[in-house]
Amino acid sequence: MAISGRAKEDQTYDGSGVKVAIIHARWNEEVIDSLVEGCIRRLKELGVHSSNITVESVPGSYELPVGVASLAQEKDVDAIVAIGCLVKGDTMHFEYISEAVSNQLMSIQFKIGKPVIFGLLTCLTYDQAKARAGLIPGQAHNHGVDWAECAVEMSVKFGSGLNKLARSGN
């Protein structure tokens, strides 16, 4: 079954003034590399200048929330895209990491006052992950493209509101 991207909106957002950080896990390198490349390519197509794109890595998906928090403090960015890939194995490890990372990424964006784009693939098989990274022609597309679009849209539409929310402590 083919997986489509996010629903298209009537408006395309200008990313020329947007600064985006991408933080990615190094686990499942083939999938991650494709997702990061797709995200960067689409950011540039949306007008984000190369000098306004920061790319950092962490060992695995579990470390993404700490990396996001650190980047938010160290870099002047409007949005952070957190990219990881978890593939279910024979133990509960997958469930624990998926839930912990998902909850922390959701929570941290309100604390830092910046959109954190959820780029964590949680797949049952490695082939599912490859499809979502655009590595299996005709089965899906590169979701890194979607995450780039989300980063620009959220920065343009809601960036200042999130900063106010974080400063108010809510």
Write the layout of secondary structure elements.
Blueprint: E1 20-25, H1 29-45, E2 53-58, H2 64-74, E3 79-87, H3 93-112, E4 116-123, H4 126-132, H5 143-168
Description:
- The chain has about 170 residues and is α/β, with parallel strands linked by helices.
- The chain has one domain: Lumazine/riboflavin synthase (Rossmann fold), CATH 3.40.50.
- The chain is built from 5 helices and 4 strands; from the N terminus they run E-H-E-H-E-H-E-H-H.
- The protein has helices at about 30-45, 65-75, 95-110, 125-130, 145-170, and strands spanning about 20-25, 55-60, 80-85, 115-125.
- A 4-stranded parallel β-sheet has the order 2-1-3-4, with helices on both faces.
- Helix 1 (about 30-45) links the parallel strand 1 and strand 2.
- Helix 1 (about 30-45) crosses helix 5 (about 145-170).
- The model has no long low-confidence stretch (mean pLDDT about 90).
